[in-house]
Amino acid sequence: MTTLRVLSTHLFLSQRLHPGVLETAARTGAQAVEIFAARQHFDYTSREDVAELAAWFRSNELQAWSMHAPLFPDREMGRAGAPAVNLLHPEKARRIDAMDEIKRALETADSIPFSKLVVHLGERSDEWSPRTIEYGLTALEHLGAFAHPLGVRLLVENLASEATRPERLMHILEVGHLNSIGVCLDLGHAHMTVGIPEAIASFSTRIVSVHAHDNHGLKDEHLEPGDGTIDWAQTTAALKALPTPPATVLELSRSLAEPAATLVERVQKAFEKLD
After folding, report:
1. Which residue range forms the structural domain that includes residue 15?
2. Number of domains in the chain
3. Distance, CA of 72 to CA of 210 (rounded, Å)
4. What's this model's pTM, rounded to 2 decimal places?
């Protein structure tokens, strides 16, 4: 699918991101990782944790290519009641809190050399309205201005909500003349909503990276390619036809009981399916 193989640390979300985890990621054949900024996994507010990862990347070939912005501000992924990081929330205070939380994660680019930040606009229940456009523009302009001096480019991701369908995200980007902001095409989310061919057609040359995972079209299962109902032959052909093929970010889930050796083999096979 692309010359760059990236593994999302979403695969290790249930454990702390430490050098041993990165070494496992390197054995999968990945050339780079997308760091999933969830505090129980990677505490971007901890100087010690940031310094530990920065030192590892300086001494190893595996790149820190991108970071996924936080979805929750706590260590429980919202299960203890913490509100989600929602840039489209009707309450201004919630939108400001969301931007502040994302900026905390972005600041780690001073130490860890990632160059892309994947951002969610809102949550599953968010609807499309004129206010969606206003709030989306404000958030992306603000975060883009904050990211630029750090050498980071924002990538906005399609979700399963009405507000984040591909044609609507493109409307926000075009209305705001946000030419520097790219797209992370999530294939699983597209498969559940408008369909992958339509999503690729809508985003076209804006696609910088692809979240690759499979499902059966009903829920976000994060299966390995081929274990759901996505047409991978059609999908890979369409992505290869783009002027600049996007990076492939393999974003899978993992059973807590799965041993590291089995995990490495599974990821290797998943990358092979995408070639």
Report:
1. 5-273
2. 1
3. 22
4. 0.95
